[in-house]
Amino acid sequence: MRHLSSLYFGAMVWIVILAPAYSQLPTKPPEFQPVQPIQPPKLPPNAVPQIPVRLGADLVVETIEILVSNPGDNPAFATGRPIYTHSSVNIRPIFKNIGTTTANIEDVSWALTGGPTIPQGTLYGRTFGGRLRGALAPNATTTGSLGYFGPGQVAAGTYTINVTVDSANRVVELSEINNVTSVSLTVLPSNLYTGQADLRFGTVSVTEDTSNPYSLKRNYVVDATVINAGTFPAYLHGNGVIRAEKNLTTSHSEGYFVSLFPNQTKTIRFSASVDYGATLTETLTTDSMQLVAESDETNNSYTLTIAAPPRPISAIGDLVITDAYFEYFPNPNRFYFLKVTLRNHGPGTVTICDHYSWVTKNAPEGLGWVANAPQHPVQLGPGQSYTPSTSARQSLSQGAFSLTLEANPNRTIPERHYTNNSYTFTVRIPEDVRTSP
After folding, report:
1. Which of 37, 141, 279, 302 could form a disulfide bond with 284, CB atoms 3.0-4.6 angstroms apart?
2. Within its chain, how far is the Cα of 364 from the centroid?
3. Residue 359 is inside which H or E element, if any?
4. CB atoms within 10 A of CB 421
C-alpha cells in the first residue's frame, strides 16, 4: 500500500512541475515575416562592374597556314596554292596564349592522317614533335615552322592535319581541351610528272688535299654526286643525300632536306685521311633509309677506294737526340729542369706535333715519365734542330743515375731509322736537405 501511494505522489509531482511550462505555449502561430532582399550597391554612372579574373595560361593553335611550293613558283612558298604530289609543303601553325599569365611553349606536334595507302617513307600516320622555346605573354602569338613534306612523299587524296600545342602537357592551363586544331588538306595527282624517281650515283672524284703541311697522313677531298634519273621528283631526308659508313666525314647541313627533280643532281663533299701506303675502302649510299619510292632500288650504293702511296724515302727525316741537360734544385725549391736538343739527320722533313714525346728510362725515383709537345707543329728540315724543355716541382732521390731519353717512342713520326732515337747521360741529384717545420 505504501508503494502505490509513493507512485501516485510521484505522478502528481510530475504534473505540477510541467503545468507552468505548458501554460506558456502560444495560443496562435506567429505572423509570417517576409525576408528583405539584399540591395546591390549603387554604382556611379557609366561604371563597369568588376568581374573576378581567373589567373593562368591557356595555349591554343589559332590557325594553321599551309605554304606550298611548286616548280617555277615565285615566291617559292605561299598560301592558297594547289597541292600536287610533286609539291613541297610547309606546315606553319600560329600559336596564341588566350590566358591571363605568361606561358612557355615547350612541345608541339603534328600528325597527317587519312588519305589512301601511300608508299613507305611518307609522313602518313606519323607524329613529329618540335620545340618552340620562349615565353608567350597573354594575347600574344608566335609562328612556328613545324612540319614539312616534299615531292613524292604523300599520295593523292584528302588528309587531315592535326597540330597540338603543349603536346606533352608541361604547361598548367586554364583549359586542357583546346590544344588541338585541325585543317583539311587535299593532294592532287601531279600534272607535271608520271612514273617514279630513280636515284643513282653520277661522278665521284677524289682530290688530294695539301693544305695542311703538318699532317702525318695523306688527306683527300671526295666530291660525290647523286642524280635523279627517274621521271618523278624525289625528296631526300633522314641521313642526308649521301651516307658514308665510317671513314669519311662531312657536314650534311646542306644535304639533309633536298628535293631532286628528274635529271637534277646534288653534290656532297667529304674528307678522308689515309695512312701512307694504306688503302681506304668506303661504301657510299643514297636514300640509305629507303624513304623514296624508286623504279630501281639496286643502284643506290657506290664503292669508293683510295690508295695512298707510300712515303718516299727521300721525304723521310731521321730524329736524333744530340744533347740533353738536366739540373735539380733541392730544398727549398725542389724542382727539376730538363732540356733536349733534337736534330733531323735525314734528307726529308720531320713534323713534330702532338704525336711527339720523349720517355725517360732508369730515372731517379720521382722523375718517372716525361712528355713534352710543342704548342704548334714544328717542321724540321734536313739538318735543323729543335730544343724543347720541361720542368716541374718534384722531390727526387739523392744519387747519381744513368738517364736514358727516347724520342718518338711510339713510332708515330715516320723516320728512316728508329735505332738512333735514344740518348743516355748521367745525372746527379744532390742531397735534399729538409728543414724542420
Report:
1. 302
2. 49
3. strand 358-361
4. 21
- Answer whether residue 52 is part of any domain: no
- Other beta carbons within 10 angstroms of residue 176's beta carbon come to 12
Q: Is residue 233 within 8 Å of residue 260, measured between CB atoms? A: yes
Give yes or no: residues 182 and 222 share one domain.
no
DSSP string, 232-256: S-EEE-SS-SEEE-SS-B--GGGTS
Cell of 171: 604547361
| Tens-place pLDDT, residues 324-349 | 888 888 777 778 888 888 899 988 88
Tell whether omega for the bond before 49 is within 30 degrees of 0, i.e. cis.
no
Angle 24-29-35 from CA coordinates, rounded to 5°? 125
Does 281 fall in a domain?
yes
Give the residue-averaged pLDDT of 190-211: 94
Last residue of a domain, one of 271, 290, 307: 307
Domain residue limits at 114: 59-188
pTM of the complete model beyond 0.85: no
Cis, peptide link before residue 41, omega less than 30° from 0:
no
Residue range 273-296: mean pLDDT, rounded:
90
pLDDT at 20: 47
Per residue in 57-113, pLDDT (tens digit) is 999 999 999 999 999 899 889 999 999 999 999 888 999 999 999 988 878 888 888
Letter for the amino acid at 365?
E
Mean pLDDT calculated for residue range 122-132: 43
Query: What stretch of H or E contains 90?
Result: strand 88-97
At 233, which CATH number?
2.60.40.10
pLDDT for 24 equals 52
Among 239, 325, 346, residue whose Cα is nearest residue 290: 239
Q: Is residue 172 a part of any domain in this protein?
A: yes
> Per the omega criterion (within 30 degrees of 0), is the bond before 75 cis?
yes
Residues facing residue 307 across a β-bridge: 279
Residues 135 and 217 in one domain: no
Say if residues 192 and 93 touch (Cβ distance below 8 Å).
Answer: no
Query: Of 188, 221, 236, which residue is a domain's last?
Result: 188
Same domain membership, residue 332 and residue 266: no
Pair 179, 273 in one domain: no
- Coil, helix or strand for 260? strand
